[in-house]
Amino acid sequence: TVVAGTVDGLVSIRRREEDVATGPTKRKKVTYRNVGDFLPSSSFSHDTIISAGNQVLVSNPTKIKESKHDTHLRKFEYSKALDSVLSSYIVNKTPHVTVTLFQELSRRKGLINALAGRDGKSLASILRFLVRFIGDYRFTRVLIEVANCVLDIYGDHLGDTGPEACQLFVRLAKKLREEEQLTMTLLSLQGAMQMLLAGSSAGEANKDMMETMQPSDMARQNLVISVS
Q1: Which of 110, 118, 143, 191 could pair covalently with 78 via S-S, beta carbons 3.0-4.6 A apart?
Q2: Is residue 223 part of a domain?
Q3: Helices (H), 15-162
């Protein structure tokens, strides 16, 4: 800074500008401190980079893996699709998946093709599923159709299916008889309850009618008896 006085009494102040050193710019450090605050869903993998005051959200959606039975259905491999949903894990954990596949095969007119041409072991797995779940009211309608198809295909040569399959056919017939007997019992009980409810309603209606037919107080006071 230079300060100088002039002859006319003024003071001149001048400041010399310093040369700014031009060097390599420092690279700002990338931080991942607040990554978790910008993750909207756990089904995607996100990388959040905060640099120079700007927030950049990069999302990479994960690819959903196609199930085995969907792959076989897409290729019209109905038998393989049915085998894939008859595994012990799916049958025990998610039996509705197997029933849904039966329903889809029926809709595609491919149920008979998926059930036909099976050996004793693969047929036994289908019969075992029918025996276990045909009494479940959620699956009864679909599984009855499957059981009818199985009987139509293998009914004429049950002896060729093997001893295990024959025993399962006997168990299936016994299960169906039990379900039929249970249905008849429930229908009888429903009919008896309807009769009781109808009798109760009729009794209340007659009581109300008798109450409306009672004479009023004025009629009771002015009672006239005609004797002829």
Answers
A1: 110
A2: no
A3: 68-74, 78-84, 88-93, 95-107, 111-115, 120-133, 140-154
The total number of residues shown for the chain amounts to: 228
Helix axis angle, 95-107 relative to 140-154, nearest 10°?
A: 60
Range of the domain at 162: 68-184
CA nearest 69: which of 101, 96, 113? Answer: 101
Residue-wise pLDDT for 166-189, tens only, equals 999 999 999 999 999 998 999 999
Other CB atoms within 10 A of residue 68 CB: 15
Q: What angle do CA 214, 217, 221 make, to 5 degrees?
A: 115
Tokens 């309603």 label which residue? 201
Q: How many domains does the chain have?
A: 1
Name the burial class of residue 144, with classes exposed (0-12), middle (13-18) and buried (19+) by CB atoms within 10 angstroms of its CB. middle
According to DSSP, the β-strands at 2-5 and 11-14 are antiparallel
Q: How far apart are CA 111 and CA 103, in angstroms?
A: 8
Give me the chain's average pLDDT, please.
79
Domain-located, residue 115: yes
Judge whether 49 lies within some domain.
no
C-alpha–C-alpha distance, residues 43 and 45, integer Å: 7
**Contact criterion met (CB below 8 Å) for 42 and 61:** no
Residue stretches of the chain with pLDDT short of 70:
3, 9, 17-62, 203-228
Tokens standing for residue 129: 């599923």
Does any domain span residue 85?
yes
pLDDT at residue 201 in the model: 75
Whole-structure pTM value: 0.60
Crossing angle between the packed helical segments 140-154 and 163-212, to the nearest 10 degrees: 140
